[in-house]
TrEMBL record:
Protein name in the entry: Tr-type G domain-containing protein
Source species taxonomy: unclassified sequences, metagenomes, ecological metagenomes
Entry-linked PANTHER family: ELONGATION FACTOR G-LIKE PROTEIN, TRANSLATION ELONGATION FACTOR G-RELATED
MF GO annotations: GTP binding; GTPase activity
Pfam families: GTP_EFTU
NCBIfam families per UniProt: small_GTP
InterPro entries according to UniProt: P-loop_NTPase, Small_GTP-bd, T_Tr_GTP-bd_dom
BP terms from Gene Ontology: ribosome disassembly
Keyword line: GTP-binding, Nucleotide-binding
Amino acid sequence: VFPAPIPACILARNSQGATAVAHSIEQVRNIALTGHNGAGKTTLAEAIIFNTRQLTRLGRVEDGTTISDYDSEEIERKISLRSSLLTGEVGGYHFDVIDTPGYADFLPQAQSALRVADGSVVVIDAVSGVDVGTERVWRFAAESSLPRLIFLNKLDRADVDVEGTMEQVRERFGREAVALQLPVGAGGG
């Protein structure tokens, strides 16, 4: 008989090899980053882990230096082909960020990630807006009764249309999509 709470064993890799770290279930959060291809999920995952001080440098998809796209084909094509797990610690909580591919051919990877996630961050490119892939991952998360958060990405681009993208979000996802925070200014390169 296990004492409550039952510990979860999380494996973390470092440069010396794999080590096991125990956390109670209440201290673990699994978040899937989902969205259409090119929305910036891998870059966001990298930034999240970098800002928890788990990384000493911020990798870039363009340079082939992100920790989640490590396969030679992913580096060459500059896309995620499979889901990858990135881990971090903040405020006594252990979290797993699951970076999922966005291309339609690889959407089953996102579906699998959502089966083990506590919630989904749906990443939307604020320039190109909501597309079919975005709608599909939103529906996958809804079918699993997962909480969803929309993250508008690429707000620094000169051709961004935040209002237009927000209108698309309202049209496609209805009243359950509510803006919690909007940028003061957007664009400008």
